[in-house]
Structures are given as C-alpha cells and as structure tokens.
Amino acid sequence: MSSLRAVFRDYAEAGRAFSLPARLLVVSIFLVWVARGIQGVLFNLYLVEAGHQAPFVGRALAMTGAGLALGALPAGFLAERWGRRRCLMLGLAAEGIGLMVRALVTDPGAISALCFLGGAGQSLYMIAALPFLTEHSGPRERTHLFSVVFSAALLAGVVGSAVGGLLPAALLSLPDALRPGSLGAYRGVLVLGGLVAFSASLPLLRLHGLQEASAAQQREEQPPGSGRLLLPIAFNFLLVGCGAGLVVPFMNLYFSDRFACSAAQIGAYFSIASVVTAIAGLAAPVVARRFGTLRTAVAFELLSLPFLVTMGAESRLAIAVGAFWLRAMLMQAGTPLLQTFVMETLPPGLRARSTSVNNLLWNLGWAASAGGAGALIARWGYAVPFYLTAALYATASITFYLSFRRFPPRAIEPRIGEVAMSLAAQEVN
Asked: What is the pLDDT of residue 427?
C-alpha cells in the first residue's frame, strides 16, 4: 500500500506541472481514440452488411494502412513547417471526414479513398503529437505525461470498443417505428464515431495564438552529426514493426484456432490486456526514475519475450492467457519510456522528421510481415511466428541499447511557454 501511495504522490506532483497545452492534448487524444475504438469494432461489420465481400474489406483496411504509411513523410515536413498545433487540427479534420463520410457512401472507390484520407489524417495527428507534448513539458513531468497519454489512449480504445459493441444492439431494440435496421444502426454509430473524432479538435481551439516550437526552437542550431541518430532509431522501429506484424493481427485467430475460444472470450481477454497495460504504463515512470529511462524501456521489452515464447509453445489456455497479459503489459509499458527517450535525445528540428520516418518504417514492416505470416501459420502453425517475433524484438532492443548506452544526454531545453516568458523578459529589460 505504501508503494501504491508513493506512485499516487509521484503522479500528483508531476501532474501539477502539466502545462495547459499538454492537458488539452491529453483530452484530445482520449476522444480520438474513443472514435477509433468505435470504428475498429463496427467498420468491417458495416461493409459486410452493406453487401461488400471479404476481399474488398481487406482492400479498404489496406487503404487505411496506405494512408498511414504514405502520409508519414509529408506529415513530418508539414509539422516542421506549419507548426504542431495546425497539423494536429488538420489531421483531426481529415480523419473525422474520412471516418464519417465513409459510413454514408456505398461506392467502393469512394470508400477506399475515404479510408486513405482517414489514415493520412491519423498519421499527421500522431506525428505532430509527440513533438508537441515534448515541447510543452519539462524534464520533471515528461515521462509521466507520455505514460498518461499512452494509458489514456488504451483506456479510450476500450471505451470506444464498448460503445461500438453495445450501441447498435441498443438501437436495434428500439420500437418498430424508431428501429433503424442493422445497416442503419451500424451507419449511425459510425457517423457518431466520426463526430467524436471531430470533437477532439475542440480542446485545441483553446490554444489559438499558442507560441509554437517552430518559432522558438528553430533558433537553436542543430548539432553537427545529429542526423546520424535517426538511423538506429529507425532500425528499431522497423524491426519492431516486422515482429508485431507477424503475431498481433492474428492474436484473435490464435485463441480461436488453438483453444476454440469464443468471440466473447477473446474480447474479454483483449479488454483485460488493455487495462493491465494501461496500469503498467502509469507505473513505468516510477521505475524509470530509479533505473533510467533507456535501461527501463529496454528491460521491459526483454522481460516480455519469455512470455511471447510461452504463447507459441503453450497448449493450456490458462497459461497462454496469462502469458498474453504479461507480454502485453511488459512490452507496451516500455513504449512511453522509449518515446520519451527518443524525443529528449533528438534536437527539436529532428523530432517530427524522426517520428514520420519511424511511423513509415513501422507500418511498412508491419504490412510486409503480416502479408507473409498467414503462409507461415498455414505451414508450421502459430509457434514459428511467435519465435520469430521474439528474435526480432530482442535484436531491436539490444541494438538500440548498444547504440545509445553511452550517448550523452542532451541539455534539457525549457518548455515553450518558458521560452516565451524568457524572451518577453529580455524585451522588457
């Protein structure tokens, strides 16, 4: 209990230091992930109900992935040139339009184009968000802020999935005069999800006239040779994306095929995994403060690997489920720590660029390995993809640690708001 109270005190202290821009972006991220949770549950079902066949469903989802990947590089450029806030707003507008309008049309070409638009908007929002959070936080609270964002996104996804799962059934239980039918129920809830994505821009409207990082930090010269830092970071994301693509898209099939689990069981396992992962993500900064951000992030990732291997080898459901939860908790708990380390290691001018390249490579790795995973599973079962993923994750973690273990920490720059106050004071004096 004393350790739990210490965690609460630590977060209370760090939370008081969260800047207004950071707090508002946390609210925005929660809302947009609720929208994505709704869409993730219902969009495939809507397409099937609208008369589309499985091959088109796959192509539509692929267009979203294409938007995420192809939008990454221009998103990094725009985030550096236009400013983070403007790109956050533009990304939400594009994603909201894509999510909402694709539920109102039936033409396959239009649906595909809107899926691409939504993916590109999501990419722009994600790539602008991390530099924005870094530049509007200080060293004391930054790791806690990234962990809060990570956990909020996970929990918002659970909320969105619940809404997406329950609301259509509620609409179909209405009296005959008000009952919309299956297609109408799906369509109505998907449109609601698009509106929720739009609403995620409302907190950011309060930041009109905000001092942007591009204005304050572009005055800082980029250290010579700092561009070389992008290579080991990008390599890490590529390997992790390849590993994730081998197993993550097939987790539901793993439980269904190997253990004959029902959809309800699988949904419960996934929801519990999200909750425990969110809790672990919140606890990670406390551990990182004692052992260091880099060491803790890498240790979490490496500690998750035995549980990944166990899932590949295990034939007992209870042990496989426990390994699934522990793997998710440990692997994902290191994510906000890794994000914090990367953002603090890079100079401001490289943050958006690095995020865009990393997102591109992660998505390409995911797509390439997911495309081949089906053949591996068909020939050798689920064990081989799990073992290959463990090897890729181990390589990524070890090479990343070796690349940065002796890297001198960057001088911590103040928050953007503090920069603005400093400049104003200089003008007065």
From this structure: 35
